[in-house]
Amino acid sequence: MSNYHIKHLEEYWQVYRKSVRHPEHFWEEVAEEHFLWRKRWNKVLEWDFNTPIVKWYDGAQLNITENCLDRHLTTRGNKTAILFEPNDPNEPAQHITYTQLHERVCKFANVLKSQGVQKGDRVCIYLPMIPELTVALLACARIGAVHSVIFAGFSATAIASRINDCDCKLVICSDGSYRGKKTIDLKSLVDKALENCDVDTVLVVNRTGNDVQMKEGRDQWIAPLLESASADCPVEIMEAEDPLFILYTSGSTGKPKGMLHTTAGYMVYTAYTFKNVFQYRENDVYWCTADIGWITGHSYIVYGPLCNGATSVMFEGVPSYPDYGRFWNIVEKHKVTQFYTAPTAIRALAKEKIEFTSQYDLSSLKVLGTVGEPINEEAWHWYNENIGKKKSPIADTWFQTETGGIMISPIPYSTPTIPTFATLPLPGVQLALMDDNREEIKGNQVEGKLCIKFPWPSMARTIYGDHNRYRETYFSAYDNMYFTGDGALRDAVGYYRITGRVDDVIIVSGHNLGTAPIEDAINEHPAVAESAIVGYPHDVKGNALYGYITLKETGEKRNQDNLYKEINDMITSRIGPIAKLDLIQFTEGLPKTRSGKIMRRILRKIAHQESDQLGDISTLINPEVVESLIKGSLIK
Ligand code: 6R9
């Protein structure tokens, strides 16, 4: 029996049991079966969750791009690796074959080398969803540089803090990006960010042709450099645990966490889960609509698919341009077989006229996926009926930037699905639900905090530059467990349903937003004394942001509409437009405990319009404020 491709439920259980009984043996077999190693490992796994330290395939040598590109050249050289669908439907799609992608990566890698980039150096990438983004990632990986992709919707401040945190000397960006009808000037955001950074080189990709300023001695157009670069670039031989990339994710406090992923384990796990979760077969056309700026794009647009020699669609645009049928138009046009998106996109499209969907032939689809947040029942049914025509199973996949790859998901055509349930752990994933006494809750029909009790190959190894924070955040809440920050329930048959974050992270349209940095941004407004952000249910975004704000000058009549705009502008410039507040309530005070902690539980209840269920408020130092909050008015 091959471990690598599960085809029915009985086989899932056999593989799962084996993976739990003998994890090292299991992951050794997977690694042997499918990959190209320059040197075999000495030891499959070494770990200790207290330090914490985790090493997979220690002693092995490899290069992930050899697995994603070189080894396909003889068998799949003319097969499309990246199928690029531009923002403008009238611009032709590009079919980039494995041979062409290999050549572009080699040239790009040689350009990076010629700019002095060496193994271990960090390179920040701020690019829209264009082929150069995939090429840039792989070029870094080919020469052993550590890529750190910054989502091309983040503000100058967010770019600067990431560049400084990972101490990167070279930035790759583009002149601009196309999103629907808009052209966004990305280069000027980078320029603004770099006023506060120590970066030597900026390589600029030409996409939109908008006017940009090129700083003498620092900025260079990449096209002429690529033209003269050699297409021969031998891979840098990497150790299994050498860093592959850093990707930032929001924390509940303070600055974003640079999750560091390493080479061998990440490769094995993303390739393995891609194959199984999407039931990928050789001639499929696979499309994940995520942005490569998030972990889903890293693992399931670039590394997982390319490691399997798949055709991976990259879409530059947005689901609403030129109209709300764009996704389905692309599915029809390219005969997409696997379609992977976020619940927020499904909800947005489900709100529009059904003709946008029904006019397209979606019969090529075999597997649907969702990721990023819990999918509500209504959206699940809409997806199942209108897109999958009740024939394509929906893989509700749960994972995190920290986990690197999908952890809980049905195996399509094997695991019977139930709306809103991510169902069962993938092979090698050992889950635990914990109670408030830090004990594991055994048995079924239970609910608790979701933990993972055994290492898996693609887990992040540290927070870049702050191992202590890594331990504190993930390994201190429960003994010998990785704590996910999510709550979950396990139903009567053992299926998991993720109930949402149990910390101060709010997921808006599938984006993880920490409350602290948003509050910090708001508090910078001169009129603001204090603020607290909570999430509340929103029919498209899943959650939207509700801000409670106290102003410095109480009593004075300020124009609250102006303030609303100014505060949101502040957030846009510090974090990005995704963190804007949908509702603001100006208040004279925030409910606080005696130790001065804002009682968010109460604010959440009010935002959820459940002020009849506030629970015990006797520990508040200012209970009178609660009444005024309930009565208070909102600005939309
Ligand atoms: C992949 C990704 C991680 C957080 C995670 C959880 C939420 C992701 C989910 C889901 C319910 C799913 N989440 N997938 N919740 N069902 N299928 O989104 O990574 O951006 O790090 O977010 O997203 O709360 O803890 P990331």
UniProtKB/TrEMBL annotation:
Residues 70-456 form the AMP-dependent synthetase/ligase domain. Its EC number is 6.2.1.1. Residues 518-597 form the AMP-binding enzyme C-terminal domain. Pfam families: ACAS_N, AMP-binding, AMP-binding_C. Keywords: Acetylation, ATP-binding, Ligase, Nucleotide-binding. GO terms for molecular function: acetate-CoA ligase activity; AMP binding; ATP binding. It is an enzyme of class 6 (ligase). GO terms for biological process: acetyl-CoA biosynthetic process from acetate. PROSITE patterns: AMP_BINDING. Residues 12-68 form the Acetyl-coenzyme A synthetase N-terminal domain. InterPro entries: Ac_CoA_lig, ACAS_N, AMP-bd_C, AMP-bd_C_sf, AMP-binding_CS, AMP-dep_synth/lig_dom, ANL_N_sf. CDD domains: ACS. Belongs to the ATP-dependent AMP-binding enzyme family. This is Acetate--CoA ligase. The lineage of its organism: Bacteria, Pseudomonadati, Bacteroidota, Flavobacteriia, Flavobacteriales.
